[in-house]
Amino acid sequence: MAPKAKEKSKPAAAPAVAIEELFTSLDRHIQRSEFDRAVRVSDQVLTIAPGDEDAIRCKVVALIKNDDIEEALSTIQEFSKRYSVDFSFFKAYCLYRQSRLDEALESLKGQEENVANMLLQSQILYRLGKMDACVDIYQKLHKSKIDSLEINFIAGLVSAGRASQVQGAIDSFRVKPTSSFELAYNVACSLIQRNMHKDADQLLLSARRIGQETLMEENLADADIELELAPIAVQLAYVQQILGNTQEAHELYSSIIKKNLADESSLAVSISNLIALKGPKDVSDGLRKLDKLIEKGDEPLMFQLARGLDIKLSQKQREAIYVNRLLLLLHANKLDQVLHFVLAIF
């Protein structure tokens, strides 16, 4: 009698204990902000259990937390083709981080109106300059009890030119303008918009003091504190400029530029405002400073603000830079450059 044929060996099931240990390790690395290690452990899980949704999500989140946005987007695209996992939110966030704003908004279309999606959508709309639509979302989120929602809501109202609605919004949130330095700053900006410059000055000083105290408690280095509070410093200088205290404004702007301890948009606004304050004095120095804000292109008619400033700055701020550059070129009698510049921006 012929021996029975051996049954074909079945593929081994994923070892549950090994998976559990890896996920425990994965959680530990994420809690400790060890994102490189978290990515490696996620890959180990996916080797044992390809398509594990939790492992894929952990890998994507770890890559994003590690600021490896391009790799996170590649991972999303790779696994989206192979498995039916919805990564629309993470994809939209990655595109947002890459300033591909229209694509980011498109990725959120048709998604559930949950808090995370709505908050991301509001940020995308804010960056796109669609302030009214941004504010509409914040109004929908008002009852969601989201921490610090009032800060972004007030910023949206100011950017939408709706400063007159700020006091009503503060009352509805039942907060004081000085409850945080960010909120104090945003409310001060609304006062500037309403031409209440002396009140704005006092609130900006409070914002700076609260910010220094808050950030010192968080053990930030002095340079990092200055970086965080740079927008307040710029607005304080601007208020002095509007109030006619030109010498003080000049000193404040010059200090911000010299220290170079400001975010790119605050530094750009400081340079632009200082040039406007000085007028036709020292034209060559003004042009040199503005050249730092421009992306050099191969084409003579190409003009683009550097380092994504075209997105980070408001339309009004961008226009101020364009006007200041145009006036300086005219004062320098560089008429050929004036023509090229006008053709490039219009």
From TrEMBL:
PANTHER family: SIGNAL RECOGNITION PARTICLE 72, SIGNAL RECOGNITION PARTICLE SUBUNIT SRP72. Pfam families: SRP_TPR_like. This is Signal recognition particle subunit srp72. GO terms for biological process: SRP-dependent cotranslational protein targeting to membrane. One of its GO terms (molecular function) is 7S RNA binding. GO terms for cellular component: signal recognition particle, endoplasmic reticulum targeting. SUPFAM superfamilies: TPR-like. Signal peptide: none annotated. The lineage of its organism: Eukaryota, Viridiplantae, Streptophyta, Embryophyta, Tracheophyta.
